[in-house]
Every structure is written in C-alpha cells, then in structure tokens.
Amino acid sequence: MIVAAESATGAASLVQSAAEGGTGLVQSVDWLAIAPPVTVAAVALVVLVADLFVPAARKPLLGYGAVAGLVAALALLIPLHEGDRSTFCLTTGTHACSYTADHFTLVIQALVLGGALLTALLSIGDTRKLPAGEFWFLLLSSAAGAALLPASRDLATLVVALEVASLPAFALVGIKRGDRRSSEAALKFFLSSVVATAVMLLGVSFVYAATGTLHLTEIAARLDDVPGQLSTLAEAGVALTLVGFAFKTAAAPFHFWVPDTYVGAPLPIAAYLSVVGKAVGFSGLILVTVVAFPSYADVWGPALAVLAALTMTVGNVAALRQSATRARSAVRLLAWSSVAQAGYLLVPIAAAAYAGDRQIGSTVAYALMYAVVNLGAFAVAALVARTHPGNRIADYRGLYATRPLAALAMGFFLLCLAGLPPGIIGLFAKVTVFSSAVDAGLGWLAVVMAVNVVIALYYYLRWTAALFRGPAEDGVEQPVTPRRTPAPLTAAIVLTAVAGIALSGAPQTVLRFAGVNLF
Known about the structure:
The protein is an all-alpha fold. The chain has helices at residues 2-19, 35-50, 60-75, 103-123, 132-148, 155-173, 180-211, 216-223, 231-248, 258-264, 267-292, 297-320, 329-355, 360-385, 399-402, 404-418, 424-439, 443-467, 487-505, 508-514; strands at residues 84-89, 97-102.
C-alpha cells in the first residue's frame, strides 16, 4: 500500500509537470550504474535455466558459471569509481533518486560481491549432496539483493533489496534435505527475520505517514518540519525502523538466531551470512540513520551506543563459554565472535549522531577488514571439516604438523580478529573504531570496547595456540581419511590470506577510509 501510494503520488506529479511543459514522463536509466546487481541477477536466471539441461556429471560447471558472473559484476564496479551516478530520479525538481552509485555504494558492493565470490569458491566441491541449480540460483539471487541495497535511496527499494537478500538465505540455510539441524536453523532464521521485517515495515509506514515521501533525502528534509500532531508518529516510526535493522545486524538482544543458524547451515553459507548478511544489515542501518533520520540523532545515537556496548559484551562472554570438545564448537565460536564484532561495527554509527557522518568511514573500514579475515577463518574451517566432520576447536590442535600453511593462515586470521600483530590491519581497524567513540565524546563506550577487546584476546589466543601444540589427546575425534583439497577451496584460503597480508602491509588504507566522507 505504501509503495502504491508513493507511486501514485509520483505519477500524479509527473503528469502535472508534463502538462505544464516540463520534463516528460519517461525517465532515462543509467544502465552502467545498475550493471553490477543486474549482472548477478541475470547470471542467476541463466544458471537456473541451464540446470535443466546440464547432465549430473557436469553440474560443477554451474558453480564456475556463478563465479564468472560474480567476477564480471566486480569488474563492472571499475568504471563507476568516480562514485557520482544516480538513476531512477524524480523529475519534479527535487533531485531525489531511488538508486545512487556513490562511494559508499561502491565500497559496500565490492564487499558483498567479493564475499559472495569467496562463498562460491568455498561451495564448489562442497555441494555434491545439494541441488546444484537451486543452490547457485539462491546464492546469486541473495547477492544481487545485497548489491542493490547500498545503492537504495528510498525506503521501498531499501526494503525490497533487503528481502531479496534475505529470502534466498532462508532456503540456503535449510537446503540440506533430511538434516534436522539444518531445518531447525532455517526455521529460527526465518521466524526472526519475518518479525524484524514486520516491525520495520510498521516503522516505515509511520515515517511515510508523517512525511508523505519514501525518498531518504526528502524524509530528512521533511522530518525537520513535522507537524506537532505527527511528531509522536514520526518518533515511533524511527524507533521501529531501527529495531527492525537491529534484528538484521544481529545486535543484542536480537541476536538469538545467530549461533544455531550458523551451526545448522552449510559451512559456506554460514560464512556468507557472517559477512555479506552483516554488511547488508549495517549498510541499511547507515542509510536510514545518517541519510534519512539525521534530525533524530538524539534518539538513535544513544540507542545505538547502548546496543553496541551490549552486543560486544554478550558476544564475547558467550564465546568464552565455548567448550573445545563440543561438536561444532569452532563454528559456534565464530558465530559468537561475529556477534561481538557487530558491536564494534555499531560504535562509529552511534558516534555519527554526535560527530557527523564522517565517522561512518570507520565502520566501512572495519567491515572490510572483518570480511577478509572472517571469510578466511571459515575457509580454513571448511578445510578442517573435510577430515574432522565434528569441527571442534580441539580438532585444530596440532594442525601445524599436518597442514602448516593452513595453520599459519588460520593463526593470522585469528590474530587479525583479536587486533594483535602480525594482524596489523585488525589493530588499525580497532584503533579507528576506538577513536571514533572518543572523538564523539563517548568515553564510556570506548572503555567498554577496550574491556571487550581484552576479553576477546583469551579465546582468540587459546585457539591460535592450539594450532601449534602437539598432536591431539586421546578422546578427541580421530580424522577420517583425508581427501584431496579442491582447488577452489585452496584458492579461497590463498586469496583471503594474501588480501589480509596486503592490508596489514598498508594499514593506511583503513585510515584513509576512516577519514573520508563516503556520501
């Protein structure tokens, strides 16, 4: 109803403009600006149709086709590096657009498409028992929605993109047919996401009722002059919209679905959710707070600061409680770690309410670091799972003796997450987030973050130390017969390790992002 009302209003304005001799009804489309998400969506359809004709023995070709499509979409970002293109704009003189390819959009699109590419590499060879056509179609469809979301500049497009990214993910989590754990994870993920979407849509409807528009820039302008009788409605709309995105970002206390979902999902999909799913939620949260609701910074700023402190504390304390010998404890610890990392990512967004939207660069910089090293950690976990299906932390003991390069890579990824050398990029990313809190006058939040970073050192270093200890003790699951490591899995580990080392060698990259206004 909201979309229909907005469309009707826009159409009426266009008709009136045309009648007065203004611009025509037909808007031009900048096909290059929308090329990355459109390419991914087109490849998804091609893969789905091709699945009907490709024989079972050649199904892996579908995976390589998906990889090629994601590489092409990433390549299409290069011509857009200037970051000043918009399309699907109103022609009534307001300069409000529904799709904008600015620097923020391009960075997040590079992150989500790169994350989807690495997920695809992890999945090739790990989808033998899964329906190949459906798997690749769902993954590419979700990636297309994830690439569309950071470019969305009206609430209707934003919600549609969010759901296009989320709905295929439900099916991907539960795609292991006959697996009770997978079905349970998909159900929990689905129910929590549906509740979040319902709450968000209610908030969006309140915002539309108070402002009469869905375009983010127009909302920002009209919220400054909301009639007194609608001020409560506008405040409720802002609050409910933020609650909906808190579910999507796995911020405490809306994080309860994360551990079971990651454990029940196929390992590549758990990696995808931990990085791409999180990037989708945070980019949407940034757009609604910084672009649409700046006049309500006194509402969402303190709320996000409290959520950040609570989220990082809950995630780290829960990660401390993970037993090394519990089945799938490695994935469960990475899940709780991702909750804690979400708390760090929230800090600069909260700081933006006090010190301006330049602080958003710190969140983007931290997200880039986290995406690379967390995907690398999941890639090594996928490698270990080939010989230790239980994937317990204890199974990583002595990994250096059997797979020295994998152990070194895993140790590097964990140290980056902890913010310790030689993971210089993790240290610099945490420093920029810490600085954003201090610059915004949120000293108490900086103290909470410092305490949580120290807490996290224990479980990251414990896992790192296990990699280089002696062989596993009696009672620990014995490995099954090792199989040849698929080349795409090796490529995923190598790519993430090289990217992490390159970023650690050039930490000024993080500082550059943290000091630039991306909008």
